[in-house]
Amino acid sequence: MRRVLIAVAALALPVSLAGAPAVASATDSVKPAQVVEKSNRPAALVAQGPDDICDFTINRPNLRLGSSGAVVQQAQCYLNQAIDAGLDVDGDFGRLTQSATRTFQQCAGIVVDGRIGAQTWSFLSFWANAPDAPFC
């Protein structure tokens, strides 16, 4: 068995090295790390994906009944976009926001607990920013 493994490894080594990048020689010039790092950075920030439909905050903490602030406004805005919840975007995670969260979670096929954690944030931001929203 050991001879078979050695033979397979000996055959695989030239194949794997064929696609490997060439090794730099002593005569090649090497740029200092700082110069390479600066030359690879974009001059300006590059947008990654579509603009966010709701722009109260970029924070995504766990939310539940009694939570408040800009993050709740973000969640309420997402719920309105994703499922047409009709919530007032007031920053108060009350019974209506909890109910809308449960409705969204059920529609999305994720854990229904009325709280907004990592999974719900992920689905909410995706669904709210999708071009065909609202879904349910």
Write up what this structure looks like.
With 136 residues, the protein is mostly helical. Helices cover 48% and strands 0% of the residues. Helix 3 crosses helix 4 (95-108) and helix 3 (70-83) crosses helix 5. The N and C termini lie far apart (59 Å). 21% of the residues are buried.
Number of strands: 0
Shape: globular
Order of helices and strands: HHHHH
**Strand fraction:** under 5%
Task: Please give a quick description of this structure.
The chain is mostly helical. It has five helices and no strands. It is globular.
Note the topology.
Blueprint: H1 2-18, H2 33-40, H3 70-83, H4 95-108, H5 118-129
What key attributes describe this structure?
136 residues, single chain
